[in-house]
Amino acid sequence: MPRPDRTPAGADRAAKVASIQKANTSKERRRGVLIWGAAALVVALVVGAVAWAIVADRLPVQAYEYKAADHTSSPVEYEETPPVGGPHHPAWWNCGVYDEPVPSEHVVHSLEHGAVWLSYRPDLPADQVSVLTELGAQDYMVVSPNPDQESAVVATAWGNQMTLETAERDKLTRFVQQFKQGPQTPEPGAACTGGTTEDLVEGA
User: Fold this and answer.
1) 44 CB contacts (<8 Å, ≥6 apart)?
2) Which phi and psi angles does 101 have, rounded to 5°?
């Protein structure tokens, strides 16, 4: 086994080697800190981006609680305009696009079956009405003017409603996708045709 070089020259070489090793260790430590710091930053950015997307993607929907299967042939004074649930006529309103106001008592029954009602003020510009009628070409959709509502456009499903000042296609499309025959539907799969297009409400 070779003996350690204890000469001044040997001690100098040993000191240089130790200095180099120390510098390398310090460099590796800094590199590790930088790598882990960068990884943590990336994770934070991804989490932040996802959280922002979720918030930005949230629809301005107001939720309500209403009892289903409560039928009446008399006019109903609803708390919301248009209504989002509550007592309704035994005959549901046939889904489709209408250019005249439709009776709320019948449409609420359609909502109970999973329909989405897109209503608008009569002074809504024609190009925006076209957005609603295009969406209304789907099944389980009712589209109609409503002179009594305050907002320009209202999307309504049973127990859920979104008000808009313009016919924003993206938001309306997502509302329809989320709530048409959605989990809030009291009677999913029940018909939206074969009902009525005549006002059968007594006294209306």
Assistant:
1) none
2) -55, 150
Cis amide leading into 2 (omega within 30): no
Backbone φ and ψ for 38, nearest 5 degrees, come out as: -65, -40
Region of residue 159 (left: phi > 0; alpha: psi -120 to 50; beta: else): left
Give me the tens of pLDDT residue by residue for the chain, a chain 204 residues long.
Answer: 555 555 555 556 655 655 656 655 666 666 665 666 666 665 555 554 444 334 336 999 999 999 888 999 999 999 999 999 999 999 999 999 999 999 999 999 999 999 999 999 999 999 999 999 999 999 999 999 999 999 999 999 999 999 999 999 999 999 999 999 999 999 999 999 999 998 877 755
Backbone angles phi, psi at 109, to 5 degrees: -65, -35
Asked whether the whole model's pTM tops 0.90, one would answer no
In 69-135, where do the E strands start and end?
96-97, 116-120
Distance CA 151, CA 172 (A): 14
3-state class (DSSP) for residue 140: coil
Region 62-179: CATH code: 3.40.30
